[in-house]
Design a protein that fits this description.
Layout lengths: L1 H17 L11 H96 L4 H17 L1
Helix pairs in contact: 1-2, 2-3
Length: 147
């Protein structure tokens, strides 16, 4: 507190030196002192107004940045949702391919068994059955399809 009073006295002394007096040795009245202090505070008020304007501008900039960050967060959230959806689809495709691969292996085994049984029946029938011949043709087509 004492420091502030000393600073104020120093300001008053500076103002007294800067303000020309009409009469030498005349004492400053309370009204004149109040005017001098008022002028000093008017300068400070103007500076505070400038600082306040700068803070207002900074607040506006930060508000715009906050809006942009919010938009970026929303975009990242949408991207994450799309990536999660794509990941689920890829897992489903992988599961289908795995099952399909198993199915193809099972089909190949079944075709081999059917072919072997047809061969045995053909041998037993001496190749006289048209039905065995038709089934053999269908088995050959299946073998081509399953690779």
């Amino acid at each position: 507190m004492c420091v502030k009073i000393k600073a104020m006295k120093n300001k008053i002394k500076k103002l007294n030196r800067k303000t020309p007096r009409k009469e030498a040795g005349r004492k400053v009245t309370i009204n004149e002192l109040a005017l001098m202090i008022g002028k000093g505070f008017a300068g400070v008020d103007a500076k505070f107004a400038q600082v306040n304007e700068r803070f207002t501008q900074m607040d506006e900039r930060f508000d715009r940045m906050d809006e942009r960050f919010t938009q970026m967060d929303e975009r990242f959230d949408r991207m994450e949702m799309k990536l999660d959806s794509l990941e689920r689809r890829i897992f489903a495709i992988e599961d289908i391919l795995t099952e399909h691969g198993k199915d193809i292996r099972e089909i190949k085994e079944d075709v081999k068994e059917v072919k072997a049984e047809l061969k045995a029946l053909k041998k037993f029938d001496n190749g006289n059955s048209d039905k065995i011949f038709g089934l053999e043709q269908r088995v050959k087509i299946l073998e081509v399809k399953i690779g």
